[in-house]
Amino acid sequence: QEVDMQAQADGIRTVFSDPTNFNVKHPLYSPWTLWFDSPQTKGRNMPQTPISAFPQTPGAMPPTPGVAAAQGWMEDIKRVISFDSVEEFWGLYNNIVPPSQLPQKANYYLFKEGIIPAWEDEANKNGGKWSIQLPKDKNRAHVDKMWLYTMLAAIGETFDPSLTMADPSGSPPNSLITGVIVSTRPQFYRLSIWTRLAPSSNEEDKLRERIEGVGKHFKMSVLGFSEGQKLAGPLATEVEFLSHKDSEKKGGKARKIIV
Amino acid sequence: SSTNKPGVPAPLPSALATARIIDDLSRVPYPENIQSPKVELNINAKDGKFRYDRDFLLQFMSICKEKPDMLPPLDAIGIGPVDQSSMTRTT
Fold first, then answer.
1. What is the rounded distance in angstroms from the CA atom of residue A172 to the CA atom of residue A88?
2. In terms of Cα–Cα distance, which of B57, B9, B73, B28 is closest to A88?
3. Which end of chain A is more exposed for a tag (fewer CB within 10 A), N or C?
4. Are A244 and A124 in contact (CB under 8 A)?
5. Can you tell me the ipTM of this complex?
């Protein structure tokens, strides 16, 4: 058996040893779907939107009220492509427009397959997001790298440090991350990391710690800032977390976490 | 798909389509100049649920350049490069 396995290993050709005739690919922790919208996508029927992606089998439960309410703007979000390997990700990356070249008011949404890029989705509704806003003029040269590194941390599944500490006998642990977004606006860029859960009270120390771990990884390893670095300024924010439920509340009641 | 033109070779997509999913990272031989995925990220990995560090992933950038078969025309969904002249301030 040992010999068989060795023989098998010898037949393995990655894209590094044979870029055209490789016979293995590197699976991702989860399959991902890229979505896009901008003022230019409104009213276009092609291709699939989150609404048409929603399973609508006859006799099935109707969409929840929240999802139905979000239909208006979700109809304008277009599905670009899905992928589930490292090799496929780079094929996409090398053939798509980077954020610095996008029109204004555009968004890329990279979410795990089956999760709609809206807080109404079951996977998002109890969660929240880490985000940072960066002035456009100063960051036009950096935003493409920041978005690339954000995507790599998402698909490489390195945002959530607690995944490494899981019980080896159990099933693979559920990652906190549901998706990442880059938004272009006239004056600034925004990058966001969406999480499945959000600490709702001060008692949830464990979850809060885990969420803060995601934020710190985002700020330091992905964006390249130092730990105590102050980022807020004109058109700029700190790296801050807000639950989707708190985001809905208007009037300064929101409890932000800042790293 | 039906859009494939006969006689036009598309080597990378076909390799991608037929390539097997790696199920044991430790058995994959990488060329000497290629850095393997960080072992500590996959101590408990199973069922092909692997995690990859950025330095490992970046090594694919200059190799995997083939346009995916399933990528729709970008202008059809409004992903077009912004007009460069509109980005230049004339103040």
1. 23
2. B57
3. N
4. yes
5. 0.87
Gap from B63 CA to chain A (nearest CA, Å):
7
CA distance A212 to chain B (A): 19
In a domain? residue A6: no
Report strand pairing: A177-184 vs A106-112. Answer: antiparallel
Strands A24-25 and B20-21, sheet pairing = parallel
- What is the chain A residue with the closest CA to B76? A46
d(CA B21, CA A154): 20
Q: Give the range of the structural domain holding residue A142, as residue numbers without chain letter.
A: 26-258
The answer to whether residue A15 sits within a structural domain is: no
Of A24, A28, A78, the CB nearest to B19: A24
CB A29 within 8 A of CB A102: no
- Shortest Cα distance from A225 to chain B (angstroms)? 16
**Which residues in chain A have their CB less than 8 angstroms from residue B20's CB?**
23-25
Strand partners, A179: A111, A194
Listed in order, strand segments (DSSP E) in chain B are 20-21
Across the interface, do B81 and A46 touch by the CB < 8 Å criterion? no
Quick: pLDDT tens for A134-184: 999 999 999 999 999 999 999 999 998 777 666 666 666 689 999 999 999
Q: Which parts of chain A register pLDDT below 50?
A: 1, 3-4, 7, 56-62
Judged by a CB distance cut-off of 8 A, whether residue B82 touches chain A is: yes
Examine residue A247 and state whether it is found in any structural domain, yes or no: yes
| Residue A28 with chain B: CB contacts under 8 Å | 50
- 3-state SS, residue A74: helix
